[in-house]
Amino acid sequence: MASFKELGLPSCALRAVEALGYTTPTPVQEQAIPEILAGQDVIAAASTGTGKTAAFLLPTLSKLKAREHTARAPRILVITPTRELAEQIAYASMRIGRCCGHYTAALFGGKPIAEQIEKLAGGCDIAIATPGRLCDLIDKHAIDLDSIDVLVLDEADRMLDMGFLPDVRRIVNELPRKRQTLLFSATIDRSIQDNFLDLLDHPRLVQISKRGETAKKVKQFMIPVSPKEKLSLLKCVLAEKGSERVIVFARTKARVEDLAHALREADIEVETIHSDKTQGQRKHALNEFRKGRVGIIITTDVLARGIDIPEVDYVINYDLPDMLEDYIHRIGRTGRAGVDGFAVSFVTRDSLAQMRDIEALVKCRIPLMRLDSFEIDPSILDAPSRRARAKGEQDGEHKPRKQRRSLHKDVRYNYSGWGDKRTGAKKRTYGSKEDAKGDERRPGKQKGRVASSPKRKNVRNRRKGN
């Protein structure tokens, strides 16, 4: 493996490497840094915790020429989906920029926009922004994007999941056409290619991880449980496996707060993070956890990606995630930087199908975890859920469920009036080709009437006494 010096980084970046405490480059850094220094557009796929942030900050900041005048527009723009990620990247950028003589502006919601406008007016070299806040600044004409030389799209797959594509497209339209574009994502799938590939110019691909690949240092387990016993199981796991450095993932904000209340009543100190929390509250919770003052964080998937929380012992999936890829990111909170960790998922009868989908994604059977203080019921894993029974799933190898096909895929709307909105379009199809003929087989529907069957007519006649 090459050293940072052998990658071609200049002396200022090497000082930053030393200040950050890095010794040898990670695989994504080793492959991406030379390409970025050469001015190539790059698409990099690497799982969480592999040093992606330094992979784009070290080369971009180190090759950026210093400017002496103060009121300067940013020349590097990093777009990232969440406030926590923006703050984390900005912190690393400030440390590297201190060695390279560049200034950073962090632009995200939860903070007064006036302070960020003042920061931009004072001049900066790199802007780290979330899409929503950046669009607000563009609307207020508070940021000049005409000088952007490098655009970084961080956690691109997450931005798609969160619906930020229109905002990203709008921002890109404000940038110079001649620029270097770097796209970093946990996975590179068809959706990334369809929505972002046209933003890059003959990009070089750096593929460290593939879809479904989990962190190698994370052992995975599951525990079958009935819904009413999940809270008791959580307390047993914390008692047996430790409660010092644990992240618990729940599906909803209400579930997060309910679990926190229940654990506090049991004299277990916890912090919570979800989208209803202010930026100050989120930052306080993370700092308390990082400093070891609180051993447990209960959170939604807002904390699943990109946040660097060192030395997490293990992760609990109290609820399985709605999106399969989020399972990979959740368990990636532990087992970072070469340290072993494990993840345990609570599986009910109704979430069994989700668990089988996850196993298909990660391409392995996840073993059971046994506890001394909790008697598990393995039969939960044998009995199909109500959803599985309704779908008629059989025993044997499980295959991931297909995405539901949109019923409106082929619909074309006529906005000239409200009479027939599907003028010239096929009827909605629910299965067979014959169903698409619709009115041809049901003449009673042509004029808005429901055709009555002979049986239905007989019933009406009997009621009338005929």
Number of helices: 16
How many β-strands, per DSSP? Answer: 13
Rg over CA atoms, rounded to whole Å, is: 27 Å
Task: Give the overall shape.
Answer: globular
Assembly context of the chains: single chain
Summarize this, please?
The protein is an alpha/beta fold.
What would you note in describing this structure?
With 466 residues, the chain is α/β, with parallel strands linked by helices. The protein has 16 helices and 13 strands. The strands form two sheets. The chain has a seven-stranded parallel β-sheet with strand order 3-4-2-5-6-1-7, with helices on both faces. Strands 8-13-12-9-11-10 form a six-stranded parallel β-sheet, sandwiched between helices. The radius of gyration is 27 Å and the shape is globular. The chain starts with 10 loop residues before the first helix and ends with a helix. About 13% of the residues have low confidence.
For the structure shown, list the relevant keywords.
7-stranded parallel beta sheet, alpha/beta, single chain, 466 residues, 6-stranded parallel beta sheet
Write the layout of secondary structure elements.
Layout: H1 11-20, H2 27-37, E1 42-45, H3 52-62, E2 76-79, H4 83-100, E3 104-107, H5 113-122, E4 126-129, H6 131-139, E5 150-153, H7 156-161, H8 165-173, E6 180-185, H9 190-196, E7 204-207, E8 218-224, H10 230-241, E9 246-249, H11 253-265, E10 270-273, H12 279-290, E11 296-299, E12 314-317, H13 324-331, E13 341-347, H14 352-362, H15 386-391, H16 454-463
Parallel strand pairs: 1-6, 1-7, 2-4, 2-5, 3-4, 5-6, 8-13, 9-11, 9-12, 10-11, 12-13
Helix pairs in contact: 1-3, 1-4, 2-3, 3-4, 6-8, 13-14
